[in-house]
Specification:
single chain; 321 residues; alpha+beta; seven-stranded mixed beta barrel; two-stranded antiparallel ribbon; 11 strands; 23% strand
């Protein structure tokens, strides 16, 4: 069950809806420790005083704002709490917008909003109204000592609070060098074929079929080493440089034809199936290795037979004579 970050209320006009804010995402990154390769001892993180070069205890560390060069104002936990008491416990809705009008690059982190006691009816009312109108609510909220712009959006039966970036935190699109003009424009035939390819590859959104295959492969390597008892083995760096492909002119029509030709109605495979196929191939390759070793062992055995050794001695004696 997700932990509660804080309990407060959605401020909706004169209506206050008591809610709990809970994380709607989680990280599956591997927790790796730093080790000294000479003796495999853990390497710790130290907070160092930049003037003395000595470690600083956690209790001696405070937060400071540099208002001039080397001049600071120190802030404590109470300062953060008192900065705006109401804002720290309120999802303050300021307006409603068309949910589809929010560019995706404004979104940051999702949180679930769960109604608290006496908040069920107000929660249901806001949810149903937003669902019917196709609106998202823009709100201001303070999370982890920082104010965020946020969007309340309908997700199934729940309301999701998605923190957003402020406008000045988003790099303007106009700063990009984007294709334009006749030189880079797609032809009608290319668009037609690309559309057919997109339709051929289209399917319902099923997020459960996608996996972090990089993390899974890394864990598999870890488990193999534990099983083999090679718990302190260091992977040798390869001396071969990674081959880089040079730039070349792209024949878009040829690529589209090749893509469409390789995809029949039954040829489209989900990523999950591809991963499974990859694993089967790996198992088959592993199964071939022992056979190769047996073959090499047989050859070695033939070389080492008494008759072979005797023949070798006779040949050496004739050569000496």
């Amino acid at each position: 069950m997700s932990r509660v970050i804080w309990k407060g209320a959605i401020s909706f006009g004169l209506v206050n809806i008591p809610v709990s804010v809970k994380p709607a995402s989680r990280s599956h990154s591997l927790d790796l420790d730093l080790l000294d390769k000479r003796d495999m001892a853990p390497v710790g993180y130290q907070r160092i005083n930049k003037h003395t070069g000595k470690p600083v205890e956690r209790g001696d560390i405070v937060k400071g704002y540099e208002y001039e060069k080397d001049e600071y104002v120190v802030l404590n936990d109470e300062d953060f709490k008192q900065a705006n008491v109401e804002a720290t416990q309120t999802v303050d809705i300021v307006s409603f917008v068309d949910a589809a009008s929010i560019p995706p690059y404004f979104f940051d982190a999702p949180y679930y909003l769960e109604p608290d006691k006496r908040g069920e009816r107000g929660y249901a009312l806001l949810h149903e109204t937003m669902r019917k109108t196709g609106r998202a609510a823009l709100a201001l909220v303070v999370l982890r000592n920082r104010q965020h712009l946020a969007a309340l959006i309908v997700a199934g039966k729940a309301l999701v609070l998605n923190t957003m970036r402020f406008a000045d935190e988003v790099v303007p699109v106009k700063d990009l060098t984007l294709p334009g003009g006749k030189k880079s424009a797609a032809t009608a035939r290319e668009v037609q074929m690309a559309t057919k390819l997109v339709e051929d590859m289209s399917e319902d959104f099923k997020p459960e079929q996608y996996h972090d295959t990089y993390r899974e492969d890394l864990l598999a390597r870890i488990h193999d080493r534990v099983k083999a008892g090679k718990t302190h083995l260091l992977t040798k760096a390869t001396d071969e440089p990674v081959a880089r492909k040079g730039a070349k002119v792209i024949d878009m029509m040829a690529l589209l034809k090749q893509s469409l030709g390789g995809r029949g109605k039954d040829a489209a495979k989900t990523p999950a199936k591809k991963v499974a196929a990859k694993k089967v191939t790996a198992k088959q390759a592993a199964a071939k290795k022992p056979a190769a070793k047996k073959s090499a062992a047989k050859k070695a055995a033939v070389k080492a037979t008494p008759s072979t050794k005797a023949a070798t001695r006779k040949a050496a004696a004739r050569k000496a004579a």
